[in-house]
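Bug report (template v2)

What were you trying to do?
Predict the complex of my protein with zinc ion.

What happened?
Run completed; filing so the output is reviewed.

Input:
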Amino acid sequence: MTAIEQFLEQKNIRPTAMRILVYQFLDTKEIAVGLTAIEHAFDKAERTTLYRTLKTFEEKGVVHQIDDGTGTTKYALCEAGCNCDVEQDLHLHFHCTKCNETTCLTDHKIQPMNLPDNFTAEDVNLVVKGICDKCND
Ligand SMILES: [Zn+2]
Ligand SMILES: [Zn+2]
Ligand SMILES: [Zn+2]
């Protein structure tokens, strides 16, 4: 069994060929990718199959969604040990307005949010917009 198969099984995901390929694809990307970009990379796969794969990954804490304000939902692999917990696993995201790429800044954690009494956070999307390091030279 490969490391990816083992990892997916640990997350209670049956390691089908498609899931392994999508995982590998996301693993090679340093930026968050939208469904259309994934679809272009897998010209033989159905969009719905890819979408379902991403949804499964999301439910099992393998990927997280980022809404970067472009109207396209982006997906990125979670860090090892991430439970996608709004209290613990928050990191900044950066959307570059020049190259249009969205990056997880996983080393830049966000402090737990202070909400008023009786407000419960379910999903947090923190995207900083600006010029990335590649576009900034
Ligand atoms: Zn996560
Ligand atoms: Zn850029
Ligand atoms: Zn992220």
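What did the reviewer find?
DSSP finds four helices and six strands in the chain. The helical segments are 3-10, 17-28, 35-41, 47-59.
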